[in-house]
Amino acid sequence: MAMRFIIELDGIKMLKRITVQLQCLGITFLLMFSLWVGVSFAVGEQPQFDALSVILIESQRGQVLYEKNPGERLHISSANKIMTGLIALEKMGNQLDSKVTISKNAVLVDGANLNLEVGGKYPLGDLVYSVLLDSANDSANALAEYIGGDEETFVEIMNKRAKELQMNDTHFTNPTGLYDQSQYTTANDIAILVRHAILKSTEFDRIFSAKAYPWTDKNGSRILINSNELFWVYDGIDGGRVGYNDPERQTVITTATRNGQRLISIVLDSPESSMYNDSIKLLDYGFENFRTGILVSNGELLKKIRIGEDSLALVALADYYYTYPVGRDYISEFDIIVGEDLKPPIGKDEVLGVAKYTLDDGTVIEVNLYTDSEIYSTMSWFSTAVEKLNEFREIVILLLILIFIELLLFSIYIAKFIKKKFFKSLGNFKKQDGSN
Q1: 106, 167, 244, 266: least buried by Cβ within 10 Å?
Q2: Which residues on adjacent β-strands are paired with residue 325?
Q3: pTM for this prediction
């Protein structure tokens, strides 16, 4: 009886242990599930910003990852500074050692300045650094006069460049960004400008990414510090500047790279108290919710076609990248267009078709297609020649006419030459006969 009681007691204890373990597993499962659900919801959440206008784009293709009032026309002085620096570098072919002489008019300017010496000569590169890092208005004026001859001509160059870049909602009236009611731009246009500048001008990108730069003049030496504080608080920052006309309407322009993905963040008219918080939220949203990966790999087979009795594989000859939301392929349409009337010979360097990918955001990516093997012509040299002649029939006919005319003129010349020689010989013969 006692033995039976002990066995039953042990069984109850074991049952309790199993019950407790199952409860723990259940709680653990619920916690993991709730965390998973929380993450799932977080991916879809849209951040809120105090700034009036923001935009976040991926740098390589310019895909828009987030936007708020991107087309709102605003007065943003940083756009002027960036355009002034970019044009100076483009026009001078990155000759940063070129000396710029400072005029009296250049230094008569309000706002931030370096107190440049009238008549002094400064390296162009130093002036560009001071414009982008320190927002120096006298440096901006000096660059404008050096490149354009005068400020008005340089402003015309600025607006022409904006049109070339399809910044359709931008108008400049000065190189400094000082307030003018007829001057405006948008977050979308600034994103276009910054993306072009960092991709097409390695020198601009290098200056834009600088945290500091040594400045030396007759007054001594000092360090120009990039006023974008995100350089020191956010991982991956590799470019940026800040600016304002009104302290309560701050501009923060930033680029950051993580895991090979470079994003461009534009925050406009943000309160001074939240300008950096807005920028951090925007960049966090991009890095947490989007990835940049390979759309098509180098050598990837996309289609097979037949040309006569030959089978050809159409492949890409480069890696093509795109940016997509986490967990989605983001491709809405796919089509392959193959060239018409393809005939041998076909070389590996000939574009035979295009693979067209359309993403959910409307971005279109076109991949040129090439053959992975050559096809040589099976026709004889005579047949090939006849085919080429038929292909350029009009040109061949014109050439034949010209050749015929040349031969006709040459024949006339030869006939005249022979006739002249004949009569000359005949005259000599008659003279000899008369003397006899």
Answers
A1: 244
A2: 290
A3: 0.76
